[in-house]
Amino acid sequence: MKTIKILGMGCPKCKQTEAVVQKVIKELGIDAEVIKVEDIEQIMQYNILSTPALVIDNIVKSKGHVPTIDEVKDALI
Amino acid sequence: MFDQLQNFADWLIYSVFRVAPESHLGEALNFFVYDTLKILILLFLIIFFMGVVNSYFPVERLRNFLSRHRFYGLDHLLASIFGAITPFCSCSSVPLFIGFVQGGIPLGVTFSFLITSPLVNEVALALFIGMFGWKITLIYALSGILLGAIGGWILGKLNLKNYLTDWVKKLLAKSDKQEDVFENEKRTFIKRIPVIANDAWNIVKTVVLYVIIGIAIGAIMHGYVPENFFQQYLSGGQWWTVPLAVILAVPIYANAAGIVPVIQVLVAKGVPIGTAIAFMMSTIGLSLPEATLLKKVMTMRLIVIFFGVVALFIIVSGFLFNLIL
Fold first, then answer.
1. How far apart are CA B34 and CA B265, in angstroms?
2. Confidence of residue B253 (pLDDT cuts 50, 70, 90)
3. pLDDT tens, residue by residue, B187-211
4. Which residues contact B76 (CB under 8 A, 6 or more apart)?
5. Fold for domain A2-76?
6. Taking the model in full, what pTM does it have?
7. Disulfide engineering: B124 pairs with which of B46, B180, B245, B256, CB 3.0-4.6 Å?
8. What is this model's ipTM?
9. Which chain B residues are within 8 Å of A71, Cβ to Cβ?
10. Pseudo-torsion of CA B198, B200, B206, B209, nearest 10°?
11. B63/A contact by beta carbon, under 8 A
């Protein structure tokens, strides 16, 4: 099972990111746990400067923008 | 390119809707259609262009660079320039601030970035080009960058470390030089385009309503407020209009998309350009929602000092513009 974290302090873009991720998981039928990380101190442990960020199994896959569906697919496979 | 747009607006209003070109309504509607289309096209192009630049020079790279080098003042300018070309999102200002602090970058340099980032952002630039033309846009951008560099430098001199919140102070104590780690930035240009275009499109979508409202208000005023209406009240020696405009603008949280079209009409009707630019800088660069976010990393006192210094510099630039433009 994959652990997907969405880092961001609750801005609209973070919600859009979550929607994209959920859509991809459903479409591909991937077994994954989606966690939203909104605490700034935890976010900063990933050494990023811009949110929203997408973290899959503790590796930062995208940051600073809402990922496209294809981006999320590439990151998951 | 924009001639075609003007032809389209003329055709739509005067031929399809059959509104007389000489009427106030016709003039206002034409102005509205033309400006809305022009601004939306400019917005997409500028945001896309900034996205391309940013894709190759992500802010992480600047952070790591500044973290390893000292330029005795020039780093303020560099941080400020990067603040201008980095797409601004108020939700990123806190992570950015922390990231810079963690990298051991001086507080003043971080402030330089933080001042310019909202002040000179891609949405504001697109609207400026569309509403005021290249010359005023360039003046706005350059003075914004200078303001960030100098403002940050002054804030750095004030030794404000003690006014950070406690957990940030702890981070500051164990800050470290940052090395470059790039995982997934090896995509080709072609592969980056859909992501950048998607992002640009998303930003345009979020501001389109403000653009339409701003231009609609502008169009109404354009058609109905008499020529030189403000000149009778504001021209010449009223020096206090600049500080008043700046102070009035802080609580107004209109993003650039909504405010620039209105200001453009005010200028056309006689408001001095320096006063107008100062007002816009203050609305765009100093906003209460951003102050609330910054409370995570700064004490109230620091936020007040930060906003105070920036406001002061905006007022000074407003006077300068009224003198030279």
1. 15
2. low
3. 778 878 888 888 888 888 888 898 8
4. B108, B109, B112, B148, B149, B150, B152, B153, B156
5. Glutaredoxin (3.40.30)
6. 0.85
7. B256
8. 0.80
9. 195
10. -120
11. yes
